[in-house]
Amino acid sequence: QGRLSALDQDVQTVQMRIQRLGAVMNAEKGKNDLLTSFTQGIKRLQIGTCSPTSSEFLINGINFQGLSFEYARKDLFLAFDRGRSFDDTWQDADPVSHDLRTLQQSLFFADASDLNPRKLTSVKAGFGTSQGTHFHVGYLTGSREDVPMGITVPDGTSSTLHNQVVELDLGYAVLKNNLLHLVYARSVVRSSSDIGDEGQATDAGDGLFNFGENNDQAVKLGWSSTSERTGTHAEVEVRSIAPFFQSFGMGYIQNG
Questions:
Q1: How many angstroms separate the Cα of 33 from the Cα of each of 29, 75, 76, 176, 193?
Q2: With contact defined as beta carbons under 8 Å apart, do 181 and 170 qualify?
Q3: pTM
């Protein structure tokens, strides 16, 4: 009887150890599954030279030095961009302006520190993937010195331009492989002299949410369709850019 009791205790001890080992293995598997699930959602991770395209009117059409991250998993979407851009193509509204800026750079032998970089930070989040029904909201803040190229001014005497852009991105899958896309954005650009000591604008009537004025907004309406038989993808879009809309995170844009 004593031997059977001792054997039974040994069996129970082994069973408890097996259960503990199984619990540890399940915990490790859960951690690995969570890490795998997260990494599968990373659509873009760039460090150094970045060229994101996750937004229409925040950061689009330029390169910058910094960090760019985009995550999309199931119904969750998140994009974050931060860095400095030396790309001034947004100012090249015509070939003459472009040639003039190129000549200025060559005459002044400008290096990166002389090119008046724009400091950009952008975040965009929402629900749904960009290729399907979605609702995303984005915000950009940027700044640069309001000094012409080749002009050197004493520290603290130049004026800094501050740019803010808010973007609303909506997509609706109307039919199979068909998407109706609407993007609406508003912008504001202020000089540091227009901002009070507490960081508040001295002119409250010229803000992002002053919907009485429509000269600082941009709208894009598009329709995309993919043929299930041939895989052909077609897009039709139209944009309306108000005269005073400006985003430091964009290349040169125009109506069309």
A1: 6, 18, 18, 32, 52
A2: yes
A3: 0.69
